[in-house]
Amino acid sequence: MQGAVFDLDGVITDTARYHFAAWCQLAKEKLGLDLPAKFEIELKGVSRIDSLKKILEYGNMLDKYSDEQIQDLAAEKNGYYLKAIEDLSEKDILPGIPELIDQLKEHNVKMSLASASKNAPAILKKLGLFDAFDAIADPSKVEHGKPAPDIFLAGAAAVDLKPSECVGVEDAVAGVQAIKDAGMTAVAVGDAAELGKADTVVPTTADFSYDLFEKTFEKAHK
Fold this sequence. Notes:
This protein is an alpha/beta fold. It is built from 9 helices and 6 strands.
């Protein structure tokens, strides 16, 4: 294992609740829709535009909005989200992540971020982790969002590694699919039944460690 390519939301910090709250606000105020709590899983790991299209499909109104209107609505949702995360700080880093980063650095493992969020650099700065990563893949420069592998392929390329030399880290079904289709070893956090395509699944980020990543990588490459 020479590289670790990380998702952001649900892996490094938990901003998913802010995303969904922003989507619910937009749906209610602009679309007249009440999103059920269970709909959050549909948006996990999915890009902003694709998330909005899923919401519009849910409300049977996808054909009522032009591409330009969809872009405007997505931008409005992002405004709600950015306001919600204004106070994000180091205390919002998930358990075990600072220790994991230190361990990976000790073993000279390159780290990159492969998030669907265009706000990822700003979020890392709020968390005090911007300088911890060797590279951040730009989601605006990949053709397809998760579950397509594009963003993870970009994450590996950003640190000059082959996908087969990297472990990908995710908490979403779409993200795990992207990791596997990129040709990477997948470590996931969350529900093992839901994330069964990953090579290893742990219940919390506190269970992450260099040893876990390395053993998972070695097993996957036997």
